[in-house]
Amino acid sequence: LIELAQRLSSFIDIRIPAGVKTGSKVRVAREGGRGTGGAEPGDLFIVVTVGTDPNLRVDGLTVYYELVLD
């Protein structure tokens, strides 16, 4: 199982568009599983989960960051 995971592991750069929300899907062309019979690989779909931060507040496409200065 570990050998299979090592064979399937790779790194790719993915650009997440501004303004995506939790549940949004990002498609990465030709980075999915291998095609059958020599066909090109399929597409990779990533489902986004946006984390929270107590210092950040999002209002539409605007992000506010609260910074306390002493």
Question: What does it look like?
Answer:
- This protein is of the alpha+beta class and 70 residues long.
- It contains one helix and four strands, in the order H-E-E-E-E.
- It has a two-stranded antiparallel sheet with strand order 1-2. It has a two-stranded antiparallel sheet with strand order 3-4.
- The longest helix is centred in the first third of the chain and has 7 residues, at 2-8.
- It is elongated, with a radius of gyration of 18 Å.
- The relative contact order is 0.18.
Morphology: elongated
Structural class: alpha+beta
Query: What is the beta-strand fraction?
Result: 15-25%
Helix content: 10-25%
What are the segments in which pLDDT stays under 50 over at least 5 consecutive residues?
none
Strand order, sheet with most strands: 1-2
Helix and strand run: HEEEE
Write the layout of secondary structure elements.
Elements: H1 2-8, E1 25-28, E2 44-47, E3 56-59, E4 62-65
Antiparallel strand pairs: 1-2, 3-4
Task: Please describe the structure with a list of short key phrases separated by commas or semicolons.
70 residues; alpha+beta; two-stranded antiparallel sheet; two-stranded antiparallel ribbon; 1 helix; elongated
Quick overview of this protein structure:
With 70 residues, the protein is an alpha+beta fold.
